[in-house]
């Protein structure tokens, strides 16, 4: 083990560069998959003829496929049909597709947990179905969804490391390059990598807890 | 791929959004091909050659976190190629490839050529065109000093041999030592760490890479000599005869001028 060599200033800076890529990719994927996930989850919940069925098939297909395969798909298979994406876009697309499907199920679960009596009450007081969803059901459901949604975001942040397979220059990738310099660097680097993931993800959990207690 | 129909639907939906993202500035645009000019003329028009190299392989292509540059035998050869084809060794752009991504990236037009410890094989010749051999490696075994394993014949039932995924050495060792258990790792450092932590009895890959490991930890040694020939070639997209000729010409001149030996001696130490 060579702790001083492994954790030199240059190496830490290189790791930090990778970590910024991880945060960047994760942030964009989180925003996109949150929007798409709410949309898909609501569509499936609303039981619109045909549409909800199609959405259900899409969600189930993606949800039951490993993320690694979806990453392979966006990077290796899409070019075969003429769609060329850069590594960054292919990674964001794969993560967004996968996490949207996961979030959609969380959203549907949250919506289902709201008592049907409330919907009936809102409808009989003259609100349209959309208004009922938007003003009555969704705000309550979102509050209940915070813990599972945040843990999904934490998974997403960690899952970005799978993109190492398509050589995205993210955190884990840069860590691998550092310990490729010298095999004695491997454990100190692993320790730092684990620590960084822990810090960021623990902060996410803390934010979620604060959000919950504020809204309760 | 019975599942692809519905996921395609979903993909198209999200594609528009990703395109937007790419337009927002961060996404690098893939180089576009498809004109009637041949690959060599296109490279000359662009004024640079894009070469796919490894970023994680000691001695051949390894990114240096301090300088941010990629360094190694493959890198120096690529620079010489740029010098021969475009007149300036700086007119080369490196893109990272792995054993898995290099052929798809070449065929997508992301890179013009692969210089990434790639063994010329009949199987691969169906997908890409190769230059002449630019480096002759041979597969060997790395063991801890004092190990009872002295060569291929000692790889008996129950012996664990470590190899790297997607490499020809993993395929070869299964043929040469069918009784041994082969464990495959993501990259060379992980395979070497596995050997050091006792996950396996021997590590197999090309001798040049194994010498790089001995260099890091002299408690290990190569045994049994080389038992295969691994001719490394430079790969280009199929049907680009002009580019292959230009590369072969450059390699020939490098060997004649002594530049090739200079580069080889700089990186590859056989003892």
What's this, in brief?
Chain A: It is a multi-pass membrane protein. Chain A has 216 residues and is mainly alpha-helical. Chain A is built from nine helices and no strands.
Describe the model.
Chain A: It is found in: Cell membrane. Chain A: Keywords: Cell membrane, Membrane, Transmembrane, Transmembrane helix, Transport. Chain A: Belongs to the binding-protein-dependent transport system permease family. The complex is a heterodimer of chains A (216) and B (271). Chain A is mainly alpha-helical and 216 residues long. Chain A has helices at residues 3-6, 9-45, 51-63, 67-77, 87-112, 116-124, 129-159, 171-181, 186-215. Chain A has one domain (3-215): MetI-like fold (Orthogonal Bundle). Chain A has nine helices and no strands. In chain A, helix 2 packs antiparallel against helix 3, helix 3 crosses helix 5 (87-112) and helix 8 (171-181) runs antiparallel to helix 9 (186-215). Chain B folds into two domains: 34-135 and 232-267, Periplasmic binding protein-like II (D-Maltodextrin-Binding Protein, domain 2, 3-Layer(aba) Sandwich), CATH 3.40.190.10; 139-228, 3-Layer(aba) Sandwich (D-Maltodextrin-Binding Protein, domain 2). Chain B is 39% helix and 23% strand. Chain B has ten helices and 13 strands. Chain B has a five-stranded mixed beta sheet with strand order 5-1-6-13-7. In chain B, a hairpin with a 6-residue loop joins strand 3 (61-63) and strand 4. The longest helix of chain B is centred in the N-terminal third of the chain and has 20 residues, at 4-23. In chain B, 44% of the residues are buried. The interface between A and B is large, with 50 and 49 residues.
């Amino acid at each position: 083990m060579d702790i001083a060599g492994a954790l030199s200033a240059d190496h830490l800076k290189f790791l930090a560069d990778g970590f910024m890529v991880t945060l960047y990719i994760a942030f964009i994927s989180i925003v996109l998959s949150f929007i798409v996930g709410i949309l898909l989850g609501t569509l499936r919940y609303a039981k619109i003829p045909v549409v909800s069925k199609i959405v259900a098939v899409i969600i189930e297909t993606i949800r039951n496929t490993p993320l690694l395969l979806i990453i392979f798909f966006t990077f290796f298979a899409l070019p075969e049909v003429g769609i060329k994406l850069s590594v960054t876009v292919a990674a964001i697309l794969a993560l967004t597709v996968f996490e949207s499907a996961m979030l959609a199920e969380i959203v549907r679960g949250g919506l289902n947990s709201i008592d049907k009596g409330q919907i009936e009450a809102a409808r009989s007081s003259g609100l349209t179905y959309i208004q009922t969803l938007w003003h009555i059901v969704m705000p309550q459901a979102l509050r209940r969804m915070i813990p599972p949604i945040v843990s999904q975001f934490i998974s997403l942040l960690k899952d970005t490391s799978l993109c190492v397979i398509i050589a995205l220059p993210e955190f884990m990738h840069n860590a691998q390059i550092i310990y490729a310099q010298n095999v004695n660097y491997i454990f100190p680097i692993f320790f730092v990598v684990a620590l960084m993931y822990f810090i960021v993800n623990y902060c996410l959990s803390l934010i979620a807890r604060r959000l919950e207690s504020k809204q309760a | 791929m019975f599942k692809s129909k519905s996921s395609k639907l979903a993909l198209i939906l999200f594609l528009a959004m990703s395109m937007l993202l790419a337009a927002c500035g961060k996404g690098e645009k893939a180089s576009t091909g498809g004109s009637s000019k041949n690959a060599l003329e296109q490279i000359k028009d662009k004024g640079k050659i894009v070469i796919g190299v490894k970023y994680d392989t000691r001695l051949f292509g390894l990114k240096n976190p301090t300088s941010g540059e990629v360094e190694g035998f493959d890198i120096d050869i690529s620079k010489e190629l740029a010098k021969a084809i475009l007149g300036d060794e700086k007119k080369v752009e490196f893109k990272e490839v792995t054993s898995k991504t290099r052929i798809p990236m070449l065929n997508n037009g992301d890179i013009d050529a692969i210089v990434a410890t790639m063994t010329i094989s009949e199987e691969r010749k169906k997908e890409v065109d190769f230059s002449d051999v630019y480096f002759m490696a041979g597969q060997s075994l790395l063991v801890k000093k004092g190990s009872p394993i002295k060569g291929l014949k000692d790889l008996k039932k129950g012996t664990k041999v470590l190899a790297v995924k997607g490499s020809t050495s993993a395929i070869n060792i299964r043929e040469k030592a069918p009784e041994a258990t082969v464990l495959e790792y993501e990259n060379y450092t992980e395979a070497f760490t596995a050997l050091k932590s006792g996950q396996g009895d021997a590590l197999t890959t090309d001798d040049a890479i194994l010498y790089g490991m001995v260099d890091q930890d002299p408690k290990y040694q190569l045994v049994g000599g080389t038992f295969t020939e691994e001719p490394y070639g430079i790969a280009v997209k199929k049907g680009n005869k002009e580019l292959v000729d230009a590369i072969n010409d450059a390699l020939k001149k490098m060997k004649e001028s002594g530049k090739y030996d200079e580069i080889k001696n700089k990186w590859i130490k056989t003892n």
